[in-house]
Every structure is written in structure tokens, then in C-alpha cells.
């Protein structure tokens, strides 16, 4: 089985990892709105049904977030979707000019938008990073184009 090792470091007065017995406690500690609970409940329903209606994740990878305790680790530095050089791309996957103005009709997906795992890539699930960068963002980009162009 998988062995998880939790850090005991602290960030000022706040522990680096928060443990909660309920999702409501965790959401409260994080200062999130109740929308976070609604979204998690929606995801858990997808897991129970075996069908992801939002991102079409394969059923064998749908694992509900239902078993306490629940943990959160604060991340102070972001290395998600970061590329040094390459095409400037906004959240709608539109390629932008130097002033961050979208170039009409030009989109960017796949590994060209950056790597989600930075220095923590795991090889335990082959191709999972392509699923997010290529398939999920490809789907979302197609949906954006259909709705906006």
C-alpha cells in the first residue's frame, strides 16, 4: 500500500498541514465559501454513480472524498502550468501578445501551456498529465470556443 508521511512544519502561527474530522471544518478553516462543499458533494455523487458529468473522467479513477480525517496543505509557491518561455496563454487557453491581449482564433493546449506537476511528477499513473493538459483543457477550450466564437 501507499505510505503517506505528513510534515509537521509550521507557517507562522498556522500549521503547514491542517487536519479536520469533517469537510465542513476543513472548509471553514480554509476560509472557503459553502460553494466548496457543494462542489465536493457534486463530485462525490459522480463517484457514486461512476459517471463524471463535468470532465468525463474514467470511472475507474473516480474516487470520492468521503473518509475522514481530511487534510489540507498550504502551498505558498505555485509551479502549476508554468513555462519559462513559450507562448503566453490565458485561462481560456487563448494565445496572447506581449500585452496579454488574446490573439483572435489562436489557442494553445497540451504541454505547451506548462506542466502541472513541476518537480513532483509521479510515474505511477502513466499519461495522467496528458489527460489534464491535453484532454481536459482540449475539452474546455472546445467548449469555450463553441460558446464564445
Q: Which regions have little confidence, pLDDT < 50, spanning 5+ residues?
A: 1-11
State Rg.
Answer: 18 Å
Structural class: alpha+beta
**Total DSSP helices:** 3
Number of strands: 6
SSE arrangement, N to C: EEEHHEEEH
**Spatial order of strands in the largest sheet:** 1-2
**What is the strand content?**
5-15%
Helix content: 25-40%
User: What does the main sheet amount to?
Assistant: 2 strands, antiparallel
Through-space gap between termini: 48 Å
Mean pLDDT: 78
General form: globular
Topology:
Blueprint: E1 10-11, E2 14-15, E3 17-20, H1 23-30, H2 35-49, E4 70-73, E5 94-96, E6 102-107, H3 128-148
Antiparallel strand pairs: 1-2, 3-4, 5-6
Can you characterise this structure?
With 149 residues, the protein is an alpha+beta fold. It is 30% helix and 14% strand. It contains 3 helices and 6 strands, in the order E-E-E-H-H-E-E-E-H. It has helices at 23-30, 35-49, 128-148; strands at residues 10-11, 14-15, 17-20, 70-73, 94-96, 102-107. A two-stranded antiparallel sheet has the order 1-2. The protein is globular.
Amino acid at each position: 500500500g501507499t505510505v503517506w508521511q505528513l510534515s509537521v512544519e509550521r507557517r507562522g502561527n498556522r500549521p503547514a498541514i491542517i487536519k479536520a474530522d469533517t469537510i465542513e471544518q476543513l472548509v471553514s478553516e480554509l476560509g472557503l465559501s459553502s460553494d466548496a462543499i457543494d462542489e465536493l458533494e457534486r463530485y462525490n455523487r459522480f463517484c457514486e454513480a461512476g459517471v463524471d458529468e463535468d470532465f468525463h473522467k474514467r470511472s475507474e479513477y473516480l474516487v470520492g472524498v468521503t473518509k475522514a480525517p481530511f487534510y489540507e496543505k498550504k502551498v505558498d509557491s505555485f509551479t502549476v502550468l508554468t513555462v519559462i518561455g513559450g507562448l503566453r496563454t490565458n485561462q481560456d487557453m487563448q494565445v496572447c501578445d506581449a500585452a496579454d491581449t488574446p490573439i483572435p482564433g489562436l489557442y494553445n493546449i497540451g504541454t505547451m501551456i506548462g506542466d502541472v506537476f513541476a518537480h513532483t511528477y509521479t510515474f505511477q499513473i502513466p499519461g495522467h498529465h496528458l489527460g489534464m493538459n491535453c484532454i481536459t483543457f482540449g475539452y474546455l477550450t472546445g467548449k469555450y470556443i463553441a460558446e464564445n466564437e
